[in-house]
Amino acid sequence: MKFEVSATVAYKALSASTLILNIQPFRSANQVVLEESFETIPSLKMKELNSISGEKRFKIIEIPETGDINITYKATVQNQFRIIPAEQLDDVPISLMPASALNYLNPSRYCQSDRLYRFAYHQFGSNQHAYQKVMAIRDWIYTNVQYGGFTTAQTSAYDTITEQIGVCRDFAHLGVALCRALTIPARYFTGYAYNLTPPDFHACFEAYLGGNWVVIDATKLAPLNGLVKIATGVDAVDTAFASIFGNLQFLNMNVNTVSLNAEFEKLDFDSALQGYSYI
Q: What is the pTM of this model?
């Protein structure tokens, strides 16, 4: 699949600051950035780093003085996913997990899996197959958590399951926390999403099943084959699109994803027969 993605972000600098942006699609064997441009007005000193944990590309921008800052990013991305039969997406014993997956078994700031252990096993533990457990988690969230509301940067998975309302960030945190409570490694996924209304960065999650990272979207707001991965990490803290060091006032942001495919046929969200992996 081929997509054109773009993001514009505007800030007002009230003092000299440093801004770390995480809005560029991650480069991998299955996701190729064919071309991209990253511009700032005024022209600012920038450098790029890849994270040593998770899948992230950081753009570090130095802002030496006060004033308005306008940032424009645009890229053409070619990606592909693998379709994996459900019977291959079973539990992986902890002793056989790679080190890169073990970190995603632990509770984190927004995904308190240790506080949701009893609920997860009572609600989903009777499912024998790991993929069916994850599908049951996805469907429970979709059915029982109302999409919308006014959640804040402090809202956690425990808050979401208690209040049963949230946005994509909250749906993803809850999915991650419930998977981890069932000893299934899970990580937060952020990206561009085709046909998302209104256009914005989108959050879902990946579960480690049968040796594969399988993408799951409990909101069902965007086609799974319309995702362009920006980053994965333990939760939203690990994958924030912007980290500010200094005094920057956020003004506005616009995000867009355009399909460059002659025809786009979205995947079946409700298939219990197969999963989809971007690795």
A: 0.95
